Structures are given as C-alpha cells and as structure tokens.
Amino acid sequence: MIGSSEPLFSGLIDCHAHLEEIDPLLPALERAAAAGVATVIAAAVDAASARLALRLSERELPVAVLPCAGLHPTEIVPGELEAVAALIGENHSRLAAVGEIGLDYWRAKKDERKKGEQRRIFRFQLELARNFGLTAVIHSRGAWDDCRRLVGESGLQPVLFHWYSGPLDVLELILADGHYLSAAPAAAGSPPHRAALAAAPLSRIVVETDSPVPLKRGEERVPTEPADLPVSLRALAEIKNCRPEEAAASSTAAARRLFRFPTAQDR
Question: Is pLDDT above 60 for 11?
Fold first, then answer.
C-alpha cells in the first residue's frame, strides 16, 4: 500500500482493479475499507479473471465487488474469446461493464496481423456490450484514435477510457463523444496522464487504482492496491485545483452515471 489508510474519505469507488493479481486479497480489501473505499469494480482480462470477479461479487467482503468480463488485447489466445463471450451472455445482468477490452499497439509493435486481430476482437466485444446494455472499459495504449473510432462505430456510449495518456487532440474528440476518463495513481507523476486529466472536465473523470500495477516511488516500484485510491484522488484534486473531498464527490457521482448501478451504500 502506497498511501495512508486514514479514513479521510467514505463511499469511494475504485473503478478499475485487478483483484485476481492481489494476494492475499482479504487483508487488501480490509485496508481498502479502512481507507474509505466502499466499492471495487473488478476488471477482467480473460475468462478466469472474469469468473473470479463473479465469485467475489457473491461474497460478503469488506467492500462490495462489482464484476466485469472481457478479453484484454494482450491476452488473446485460441478459445478465450468464446469463453468470455459465453460468460458475458450468461451473466450480463450481474456485470458492471465489459472490460478490460481494447487495443494495445505497443505490445503488437509493427505486427499488422496482431493489430487486425485485436481490432476484430475489440469490435466483437463492443457489440456484446451494446447488445446487453453495458458500458465498456477501454484499454487504448498506443491506439488511442483507433479505439475512439471503433467505439464510435459501435454506437456504444458512454464508455470509460481507462488511464488515458494519449494525444490531447484525440482526447478532445473522445470527450466530444461523451466518454469518460479515469485518474490512476500515476496521476501523481506521469506528465501525459496529468495533461489528459487537466484537459478533461472534472465531471467526466472517475478514479481508479489499476492495482496491483506498480507506481514508481524514487527508484522503487511499489505495487498498488485499492486502499491507494486516495493517491489518485489527491493527485486529481491537485491537477483540478479543488479540494480532495470535491474530487471524491465528483468521481463517485460520475461512476454512478457511467456504470448505472448502486454502490454498496444503496443496498
């Protein structure tokens, strides 16, 4: 855990965390609750992580876990898309979103065949989200404009462009289309991510940890967890020149609009 667990906030929503990668998980969720996190949206990258998210959503835990299902562009293997699509079809009424889906041209590099396969699978999952009335969580690394274009072609709106760090001219189009961004702990130090958050209206920004993705602290890279959500909030508040409490209230309201489901407090 990077930040303090002092309960300065309450009712927070971590809009993107990879709970399958956090071990041990229960103590991490206890620390999250102590830090004011009420709800964690569990992103999925494949069928196994989606199944775990669904199981966690059924358990009595220190925070509410709301599941996603999706195939990440770096996790494409034979048969996986069919398994993920089946999970979405069977559990769509329980899902917060289809995600994490999208394109990763940095990983594909110059391999046009891989890029084409990523686009095909992305289109298919966007169509699933639209058919089932779900939003989508978009991974757009190195492929920001293609992601924007394919989301637009799908007619799906709004979606979350998770941890956006791309060009500001593309961001302007994303925002004009009605979509949202997330502020990750990297907002404390990443110039491209900070620039994107500065350019977006506060009302279109939610907060996340993307845990356990590590955050650089000096020469050390420290894994994050949902309890580090205040790191994202404080960084966002600094960028937007507002109080952290204002950033927290705005992010929570934005998350409720975007994902269209109740938080733990409404149960």
Answer: yes
